[in-house]
Design a protein that fits this description.
By secondary structure, the chain is of the alpha/beta class. It is built from 7 helices and 12 strands. It has a 7-stranded parallel sheet with strand order 7-11-6-1-4-5-12, with helices on both faces. The longest helix is centred in the N-terminal third of the chain and has 17 residues. It is globular and about 80 Å long.
Length: 265
């Protein structure tokens, strides 16, 4: 089985995140890491490999700036077999549509010698939380999509998942090749061991440009994005809270009035 896991390099949520002058997220001047939700996709790919046998290969694929290679390295340390990093200055500012195009072309190139059986994605990225790229990727690859899986079962070329909705749980089956996205309910992602960290240094890593995957520079980037952020503003500093005293028994009434004024009740 040939599995490709799409992973994303995102700004660290605990860091001081900033915007560039063009109102795009600064992905170079801040600390970043592998998106936590994509770690679940890597974990599920590794579990499928462990069940299917050693002839299964897991490739971690990332699109992003130079520092985004760290996301691929983390996937390799977890146990992926090889990594692919698509990096090109023209990609900066790309929206979901352009990103799905780059990913699709990279998946096609990755499967040139051995067709890709399964493309795995996280349910969303922790920076944008769009949840649309897996569906767009499936459309571009002309593959069925099975999304938001909380439980995955695979046997041969058959995949069956459970998807938890607001009112019910669905059981969905599909035949590979397909695109599959997983939620954070699929199970805790493993931590890289010391052995895995050392082994990752010897695993193959390829860096591709847009030209390598057959995408023109004018097909991606901020200039062709279908949506743009026109303005950003820093979150206002916290102000002192209002203290409600209850010395004369009027505290409950004062608290109710405050909550009502804020439309909390």
């Amino acid at each position: 089985m040939n599995i490709v896991v799409c992973v994303k390099y995102v700004p660290d949520a605990t860091a001081d995140r900033q915007f560039e002058s063009d109102n795009t997220v600064d992905r170079v001047g801040v600390d970043g890491l592998l998106s936590e939700l994509d770690e679940y996709a890597v974990e599920q790919a590794l579990q499928l490999k462990e069940k299917a046998g050693d002839d299964t290969e897991v490739t971690a694929l990332c699109v992003g700036p130079e520092k985004a290679v760290d996301a691929v390295r983390k996937a390799l340390q977890m146990g992926a077999d090889k990594g692919i990093h698509v990096s090109d200055e023209a990609i900066a500012g790309s929206d979901y549509i352009a990103t799905s195009l780059v990913l699709a072309k990279a998946v096609e190139k990755a499967g040139a010698e051995k067709p890709v059986d399964l493309v795995l994605c996280g349910m969303a990225s922790t920076d944008a939380s769009g949840s649309v790229v897996p569906a767009m990727l499936a459309e571009r690859l002309d593959l069925p999509q099975v999304t938001f899986a909380s439980v995955i079962e695979a046997q041969g070329d058959q995949v069956r998942i459970k998807r938890d909705g607001d009112t019910a749980t669905e059981v969905i089956g599909a035949t590979m090749p397909l695109v599959l996205s997983v939620t954070d309910q699929t199970g805790e992602a493993r931590y890289p061991s010391f052995k895995g960290i050392m082994a990752a240094k010897k695993k193959p890593m390829e860096t591709w440009s847009l030209a390598d995957i057959g995408v023109e520079a004018d097909q991606v980037g901020l200039s062709v994005a279908w949506s743009q952020v026109e303005e950003t503003a820093a979150r206002p500093p916290r102000t002192a809270g209002e203290i409600v005293t209850d010395e004369d028994g009027s505290g409950a009434e004062a608290l109710t009035g405050f909550l009502a004024s804020k439309k909390f009740i």
